[in-house]
Inverse folding.
């Protein structure tokens, strides 16, 4: 072990790393730093949009930063109030909490600057999900909703193509296949189950809150769980713990309840002859697809100048006009101009914008404590429908779960 | 006695072979999955080898240089790993020497106090840690990956344990010969624990694959990330995977540098520690 | 002369001590402070005294009490299952590899070490596919029909196998390095006395690698207490939260959806830290008793 060599080596590496870090932090003050949680291919589509925008040589170019654990990162920078990004893409269900914790800058100036960034130019629920007490805090990029994929070949095999006639597969129709499926085939999987449960609650005219208090233990929730549990008991749902999403891709499942965005992965599977429809419901009169939205927002940051906000407005206006690229990610673009364009019709998810009824079916929850409710359903939902926990006990536990979290989380920020 | 040796030899062979088969099947399966199309991944039945070999997954991975420059990540990692490893070995051996060979008041108490403090799981420590890094201006800098890791106690604990196994006579005879403390450290103790230091180096080079949060917090610049942070952009840690073949491909590309290092290093860490090495000072 | 003697240790342990105080001690102290507060990670923490601890330890009706006890129970089960395996298997491998007549040592060693390099998300996916009821090797090859992740004890089996697969390599090379350091003279004289392989292992190998054994035992235990990625990815904590370990609850509380509940998460982390401290201290004391 030659010590001198070691010391020399470490001095070299240390000085090299100091050099590297020295040139690391030089950010053009005119750059709009834009954080988003779009990992994988989604990030690439966003990157394409940003690149195209920067090609127009704007005064404030955008730098897209993809982060796999963005919310954790948001907490760290907001806490130290340094390196706060100029623009951030957040999910709709974060908005009420962020506003309450005083983390978001309203979009007021942006809206004043670009007159076309207004409610009537966006899908209404995406726009209003960003509004808290008559203040607009976000501008939506998209709606991403649950969707139900169907395997055309399997529908034909079992002679049930008529399920789709009225665009809604009902519980009764599904139950009619009880005992009629070959071994190894399943009617429906349990992917994104909590979203399905929430959609059924809305179908039953229920809600997840009452006067601002969380309402999980409700008759509607109970009925929703009972109905889904019946599908399980009839042996129609993929077994607990199985990757039902992959089973759909391998052609063993008639219906897959996942998200609009998975069509991109389904397309990769040769010979998977599939289509998209609504999440199953009680009757064709009322169907719901639980949705969320990616929304542009500005975290509180004193260093952000008014000029820069104008630059952000410029970018958002560009996105409003040119976000057809984002449709490639399988998302329903929020800008009406894009959604109504002929190019958008080429994408599978345009099914959900094809008529008023479909548009109305996209439901975004805006209740402040929605995230806790979804977490409760994610934790207990499978146990309940597969009969490991009784419905009554499960409902009471989930209600308490949400209430405890609210009580503990509430420190006025 | 000969018979005895033969039995133990065969027992050893059987044990190792069975274990290795169990261990290698998933590696092959995972690697082969990276040469499969999504259609084949989801087709029923188990096959170890792809029916249709495709390299599309790798093309897709390597082509995506804007949001996932995997080769750049590997280079960044290499730089971080090499400098971190060198510093770790220096700091660790020096510190471990202090805690095992030098005599000072409350030495062991201090050591165990530090060890104890380091045992607390650092979940919410993320926020203060980030503030510290920011004070130093190390956000987006490799220094944030290199320096804080030097404070860890694990490797020091390991090397200290090995050093304690070296009889005191070595130091004493050297001291009689008039050797200073640093000479004893560098000329006598270091050579003897070389295999452990190589193990330590290997560990710090391998890095922590399970540390999801820190690299993500430190970096916001895709170009500057190490592979650990980068992979998270390709692989959703919450299991929300879509393109299985690509995920596998990126995982296996990522292990190449460390694997090569391991193959190189394994010759050295099983070298005898040679406690009979000359006490030549 | 006396002054010099006092300064010398500083030269050796000083640099690390400084790093330790800045990068570990300060954040840990802050984490402990946070455990006495209500904190959403954004605003200022609000001092609540022992409230979080009271809730976790004594409020039987609280969700957090359930999460803490259930998480701790599952974590302890994981530790009890994993630690012996993570010590014994690598030890057996190293002893087997030390057998002079064994060939292809580096091949065996490489195969057993490489899984530890695979990122945990890829490892989890590999094993999930291997145990997928339709696509996997387990059911197809052995004609089983089990949904592994949703039934006990299979769910635990999945968590254990993926942890073992990636986890044995580290201890294995520590033992390899330690056993290589044993003087061959010891074995030779034992052989002259006609000692069996088992005797040699018991009387020579084990005592000679006592220090590395203590190290691996203590660190492996601490590591197992911190487990979270393997159960998160293999079973998502199910069925019925029976593989939901404490670190998963802690992380969700602090960084999950919805407003962060970081004070409670810190209190859980501190309690977990205390438990790790007591257990590893006990292990160290027992193992080390005979020498110093």
């Amino acid at each position: 072990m030659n010590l001198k060599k070691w010391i020399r080596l470490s001095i070299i590496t240390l000085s090299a790393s100091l050099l590297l870090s020295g040139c690391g932090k030089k950010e053009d003050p005119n750059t709009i730093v834009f954080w988003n949680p779009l990992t994988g291919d989604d990030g690439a589509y966003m990157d394409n949009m940003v690149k195209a925008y920067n090609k127009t040589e704007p005064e404030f170019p955008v730098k897209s930063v993809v982060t796999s654990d963005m919310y954790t990162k948001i907490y760290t920078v907001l806490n130290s109030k340094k390196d706060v990004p100029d623009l951030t893409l957040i999910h709709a269900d974060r908005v009420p909490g962020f506003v309450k914790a005083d983390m978001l800058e309203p979009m007021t100036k942006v809206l004043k600057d670009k007159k076309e960034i207004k409610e009537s130019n966006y899908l209404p629920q995406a726009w209003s999900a960003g509004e808290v007490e008559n203040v607009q805090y976000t501008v939506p990029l998209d709606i991403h909703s649950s969707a139900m994929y169907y395997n055309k070949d399997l529908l034909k095999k079992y002679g049930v193509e008529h399920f789709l006639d009225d665009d809604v597969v009902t519980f009764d129709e599904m139950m009619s296949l009880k005992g009629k499926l070959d071994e190894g085939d399943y009617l429906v999987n349990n992917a994104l189950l909590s979203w399905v449960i929430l959609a059924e609650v809305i179908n039953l005219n229920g809600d997840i809150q009452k006067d601002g208090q969380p309402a999980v233990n409700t008759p509607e929730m109970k009925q929703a769980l009972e109905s889904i549990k019946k599908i399980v008991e009839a042996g129609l749902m993929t077994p607990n713990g199985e990757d039902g999403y992959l089973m759909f891709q391998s052609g063993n499942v008639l219906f897959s309840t996942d998200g609009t965005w998975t069509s991109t992965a389904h397309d990769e599977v040769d010979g998977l002859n599939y289509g998209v429809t609504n999440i199953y419901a009680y009757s064709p009169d009322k169907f719901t697809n639980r949705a969320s939205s990616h929304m542009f927002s500005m975290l509180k940051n004193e260093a952000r100048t008014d000029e820069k906000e104008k630059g952000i407005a410029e970018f958002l206006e560009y996105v409003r006009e040119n976000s057809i690229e984002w449709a490639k990610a399988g998302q329903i673009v929020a800008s009406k101009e894009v959604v109504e364009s002929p190019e958008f019709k080429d994408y599978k998810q345009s099914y959900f914008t094809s008529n008023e009824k479909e548009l109305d079916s996209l439901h975004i929850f805006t209740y402040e404590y929605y995230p806790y409710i979804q977490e409760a359903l994610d934790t207990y939902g499978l146990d309940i429908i597969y009969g490991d926990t009784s419905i009554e006990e499960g409902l009471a536990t989930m209600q308490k779960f949400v209430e405890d979290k609210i009580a503990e989380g509430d420190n006025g920020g | 006695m000969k018979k005895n040796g033969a039995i133990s030899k065969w027992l050893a062979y059987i044990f190792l072979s069975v274990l290795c088969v169990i261990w290698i099947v998933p590696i092959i399966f995972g690697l082969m999955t990276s040469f499969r199309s999504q259609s084949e991944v989801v087709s029923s039945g188990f096959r170890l080898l792809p029916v249709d070999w495709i390299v599309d997954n790798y093309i897709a991975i390597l082509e995506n240089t804007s949001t996932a420059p995997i080769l750049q990540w590997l280079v960044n990692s290499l730089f971080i790993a090499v400098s971190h490893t060198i510093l770790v070995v220096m700091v660790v051996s020096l510190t471990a020497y202090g805690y095992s060979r030098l005599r000072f008041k409350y030495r062991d108490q201090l050591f165990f106090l530090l060890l104890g403090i380091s045992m607390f799981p650092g979940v919410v420590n993320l926020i203060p840690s980030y503030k510290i890094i920011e004070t130093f201006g190390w956000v987006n800098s490799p220094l944030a990956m290199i320096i804080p890791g030097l404070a860890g106690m694990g490797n020091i604990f390991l090397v200290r344990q090995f050093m304690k196994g070296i009889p005191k006579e070595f130091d004493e005879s050297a001291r009689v010969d008039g050797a200073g403390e640093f000479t004893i450290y560098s000329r006598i103790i270091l050579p003897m624990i070389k295999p452990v230091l190589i193990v330590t180096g290997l560990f710090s080079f391998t890095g922590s694959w399970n540390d999801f949060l820190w690299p993500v917090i430190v970096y916001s610049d895709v170009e500057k990330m190490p592979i650990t942070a980068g992979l998270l952009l390709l692989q959703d840690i919450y299991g929300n995977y879509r393109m299985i073949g690509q995920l596998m491909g990126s995982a296996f590309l990522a292990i190449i540098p460390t694997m090569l290092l391991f193959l190189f290093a394994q010759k050295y860490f099983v070298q005898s520690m040679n406690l009979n090495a000359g006490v030549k000072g | 002369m006396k002054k010099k003697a006092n300064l010398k240790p500083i030269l050796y342990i000083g640099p690390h001590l400084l790093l330790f105080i800045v990068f570990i001690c300060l954040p840990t102290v802050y984490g402990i402070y946070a455990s006495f507060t209500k904190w959403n990670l954004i605003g200022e923490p609000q001092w609540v005294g022992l409230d979080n601890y009271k809730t976790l330890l004594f409020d039987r009706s609280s969700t957090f009490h359930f999460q803490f006890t259930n998480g701790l129970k599952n974590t302890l089960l994981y530790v009890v299952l994993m630690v012996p395996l993570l010590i014994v298997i690598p030890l057996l491998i190293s002893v087997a590899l030390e057998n002079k007549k064994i060939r292809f040592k580096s091949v065996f060693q490489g195969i057993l070490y490489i899984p530890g390099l695979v990122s945990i998300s890829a490892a989890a996916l590999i094993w999930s596919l291997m145990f997928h009821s339709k696509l996997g090797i387990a059911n197809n090859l052995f004609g089983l029909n089990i949904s592994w992740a949703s039934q006990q004890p299979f769910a635990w089996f999945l968590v254990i196998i993926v942890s073992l697969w990636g986890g044995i390599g580290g201890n294995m090379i520590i033992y390899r390095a330690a056993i290589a350091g044993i003087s061959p003279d010891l074995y030779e004289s034992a052989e002259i006395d006609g000692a069996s392989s088992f005797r040699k292992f018991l009387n020579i190998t084990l005592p000679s690698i006592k220090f590395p054994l203590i190290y691996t035992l203590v660190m492996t235990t601490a590591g197992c207490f911190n487990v979270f990625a393997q159960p998160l990815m293999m079973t998502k904590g199910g069925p019925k939260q029976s593989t939901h370990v404490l670190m998963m609850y802690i992380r969700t509380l602090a960084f999950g959806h919805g407003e962060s509940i970081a004070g409670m998460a810190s209190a859980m982390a501190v309690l977990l830290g205390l438990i790790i401290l007591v257990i590893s201290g006990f292990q160290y004391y027992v193992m080390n008793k005979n020498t110093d």
Notes: The radius of gyration of chain A is 24 Å.
